[in-house]
Amino acid sequence: MNKLYIILFILLFSFALFAQNRVIRVGAYDNPPKIFKDDDGIIKGIYPDVLEAIALANNWTIKYEYSSWDYCLKKLQENQLDLMPDVAWMSERKSFCKYSHSPLLSDWLEIYSRRGINIESFLDLDGLTVSVLNNSIQEHKLREMVNGFDVSCEVMTVDNIEDIFISLTDDRADAGIINRFFGEYSDTRFNIVKTGIVFFPSKTYFVVPLEGDTTLLNIIDIYIDTIKKDRLSVYYQSIKKWMGEEHFFKLPTWILQLIIFMTSAILTLSVFYIIAKHHLAQKKRELEIAHKEALRQERLHALGQLASGIAHDFNNILSPVLGYSEMMIMNPDLMKDREKCLKRLRSINNAARDGIEIVKRLREFYKPKDEDEIDEQVFLDNLVEEVIDLVHPRIDQYYNQTDKILNVKTDLQKVPPVLGKPSELREALMNLIFNAMDAMPNGGQLQLNCRQNNDRVEMTISDTGSGMSDEVRKKCMEPFFSTKGERGTGLGLSMVKSIIDDNNGTIDLHSILSKGTTWTISFPIVQQQTPLKEEENQFLFVQALKIALVDDDYRTLDSMKEMLENQGHTVSPFLNSSDALEACVSNNYNVLITDQKMPGIEGTKLAEILSKITSSMSIILMTGSIDIKQGFSEEFPFIKYILKKPVSISSLNKALIISGFAQTEI
User: Fold this and answer.
1) Predicted confidence band at 343 (pLDDT cuts at 50, 70, 90)?
2) Which helix (H) or strand (E) holds 258?
3) How far apart are CA 312 and CA 308, in angstroms?
């Protein structure tokens, strides 16, 4: 067992050893064999077996409050219960309860009917009376499917799951929907028919009230994850006791028959398909591979042009950094002149900040595509200025080799924002500028304009280059069409059109041979603008904190340690996650600042482990990467702030303030 599991087990044992006896109010209802009250008034079932084992290990006293399923849900909403078992996932329930991360059981829904009723598909429920448990996942899914399939049936709700089968035997209902555990446990006691129709596979969880104690769920999650790995645990013993081992592990007969039938049908059809379509499928795959590779090469080509120009700027930036630092290292007496020393340090600091801005612009231009990326408000006038800053070194390098000149002129009016993906729009504009440069090898004029036209924002890119013939103009945005020979892939302009279309814009072309080309790109204005947030926390300072700092790069670790200690904090540095994990378990740190990309345990995993152990420590994640995607905050809610590298004193203070460690200056 690795070090992580040893720590978790020590923690769980410590809870049990030192915790005071605690009474846990648990909702109980009849849903055998998962949970039910027997003839002697004792709560039994799979969930009680597991819960009572957890209670014994943690010195809890379980107090069951027995009622109907619907009434237990109401008591949970009113905080009259501490815990409720056997709750299927429904997004609507998140408004009044919190789910455990680890499900205890996997389930599905089944349809039963009374004798004499023939039901072969869900559509056969049309005109029938269907019995379901009130306010349950069965009722929710039945009503959802009834609406989806346009089936007209009467839904009869009952308070007790056994009443579903009773309503079938006394002819009050024609069909009933129950979970598979209750069906396999109880159907032999009733004169009913199992239709074999199953749907909606699901998992069931423990839940606490929305304002309840999530520590209960954390302990339950750890315990469930552990007992599911042990074939001799109470989990497997309870299932075998209530269901029989063959019921739990054996697939239903109808599923096996369906698998055999579908396998035979698929094999037969596959033979004919392979014989008839093999050649076509092979060619299609080859074309797709070639298309993807060509797109990749086109993007790399654009990035290469950009990077070659930016390299010149970086060398200029590094000159004062290298020169001033070498002067002071080789001749320490220079630092005695405080004014000159400060001037050199400011030059080094300004150069470093300029370098940060170049890297930021470069990686924003070429950050990885995110399938879930959402549109943002984009000010096209600002975007044009950013792209011009990026391409200027490349323009100078391109034309200086031939002693030609390209005059770049702009007319950028202040315009309202549009919705789009900034990185994609930068890429499209970059492609059009590079295309214009290729059309003007002997120099010329490049004009970029931005203005509002009624309810749209227009951006125009005009050149005085070679222009296009009518034939070329009609085909220029088709994939793989190129007039550049081996110098082009024929994908640049088709990629531009695809980007503009994906961002809800339009693109028009006007070109005259030997005169030049004008591209007009138009986007609808955002109707309701999101107001910009004003600067906050400007009169706040960070209190002295006890901080655990983790980074596998010793240079980053040393510099950040000094920055934090200079602000009055107590810092414990760690070069690996394992040492940091042990220290955080045994020490009371206010904050953990951890790098993301590290060998062994990555930053997000370290944060997840510690969030289950302690809720009093704020966690800040550092990253120099750009692969933080939409939805990150929902996936890792325990991370308070994302701190981008390189880190400065001001960005560190901002991270600590936003994480909740700020005091109003007196």
Assistant:
1) confident
2) helix 253-330
3) 7
Q: State how far the Cα of 128 lies from the Cα of 111, in Å rounded to an integer.
A: 13
Q: Please tell me what DSSP assigns to residue 150.
A: T
Report the SS3 class of residue 460. strand
**What is the C-alpha separation between 272 and 266, in angstroms, rounded?**
10
What's the confidence (pLDDT) of residue 374? Answer: 61
Using CA atoms, how far residue 114 sits from 165, 210, 225, in Å, is 9, 40, 40
Task: Give the CA radius of gyration of the chain.
Answer: 33
In this predicted model, what pLDDT tens digit does every residue of 568-580 receive, in sequence order?
899 999 999 888 8
Q: Which residues contact 275 (CB under 8 A, 6 or more apart)?
A: none
Q: Three-state SS string across 527-573, please?
A: CCCCCCCCCCCCCEECCCCEEEEECCCHHHHHHHHHHHHHCCCEEEE
| Cα–Cα distance measured from residue 145 to residue 130, given in angstroms and rounded to the nearest whole number | 13
**Residue 31 DSSP symbol:** B
Instruction: Tell me the mean pLDDT in the region 65-87.
Output: 94
9 neighbors 21 (Cβ within 8 angstroms): no
pLDDT digits (tens, 9 = 90+) for 538-549: 445 567 889 999
Q: How far apart are CA 67 and CA 307, in angstroms?
A: 69
Q: How far is CA 389 from CA 33, 164, 313, 366, 410, in A?
A: 69, 71, 11, 15, 12
Q: How many CA atoms lie less than 13 Å away from 437 in the CB half-sphere?
A: 22
- Average pLDDT (160-189) is 91
Q: At 215, list the tokens.
A: 């520590």
Element spanning 255, H or E: helix 253-330
pLDDT in tens, 246-279: 444 445 555 556 666 677 667 777 666 676 666 6
Written as six digits, the tokens of 154 are 């009467």
The model's pLDDT over 183-192, given as tens digits with 9 standing for 90+, comes to: 888 888 898 9
Distance separating alpha carbons of residues 434 and 406, to the nearest angstrom: 12
In the prediction, which pLDDT does 337 show?
84
This prediction has a pTM of: 0.39
The first and second tokens of residue 192, run together, are 């009913």
Length reported for the chain: 666
Give the list of residues 6+ apart from residue 486 with CB closer than 8 angstroms, or none: none
Eight-class DSSP state of 188: G
| CB neighbours of residue 602 within 10 Å | 16
Neighbours of 157 (CB within 10 A): 17
Report the alpha-carbon distance of residue 103 to residue 88 in Å, rounded.
Answer: 9
pLDDT of residue 113: 95
For helices 234-243 and 214-227, the axis angle rounded to 10 degrees is: 80
Amino acid (1-letter code) at residue 469: S
In which region does residue 82 sit, left (phi positive, over 0), alpha (psi from -120 to 50) or beta (all else)? alpha
pLDDT digits (tens, 9 = 90+) for 344-373: 787 677 667 767 766 665 665 555 554 445
- Reading the block at residue 632, the tokens are 């990150």
Residue 491 has pLDDT above 60, yes or no: no
- Helices 214-227, 46-58: crossing angle, 10 deg rounding: 110
d(CA 577, CA 432): 46
Cβ atoms of 48 and 68 closer than 8 Å: no
Which region among 12-21, 23-32, 167-176, 205-214 has the lowest average model confidence (pLDDT)? 12-21
Other C-beta atoms within 10 Å of 66: how many? Answer: 16
Place of tokens 């930068």: 426
